[in-house]
Amino acid sequence: xxxxxxxxxxxxxxxxPYIDVxxxxxxxxxxxxxxxxxxxxxxxxxxQSLQQMAAPIVVTVKxxxxxxxxxxxxxxxQMLAKVKSQLDEESRSVVVAADEKTEYGEMVKxxxxxxxANIEKVGLLLTSR
Length: 129
Fold this sequence. Notes:
Layout: H1 16-32, E1 57-61, E2 67-69, E3 72-74, H2 76-89, E4 94-99, H3 104-116, E5 122-127
Parallel strand pairs: 1-4, 4-5
Antiparallel strand pairs: 1-2, 2-3
């Protein structure tokens, strides 16, 4: 009669391979860590003031197509001359403002005129009244 031996279930986990992998990774990190170049951060110094941007030139387009700068109503050619003279003094941007009742075509005329005059910083502003 042959005896059959019952196999017991192994209830322990073999951790040796995990330790081997962990040690290899540790060695890799220890060798490569001195090779990395840490980034340089330029921190601001104390007492350094921020340069304020100049307020933009606001060109308001009215419902009938007239333009207005600083409360002064001007035709398109005079408006362009005034914007250019104010831009020559300092680096500023131009904002084209209109209310919701102004036709889109009137705003496009003003923006096209500014674009033809090589004014690059142009923004839009919609006001509701």
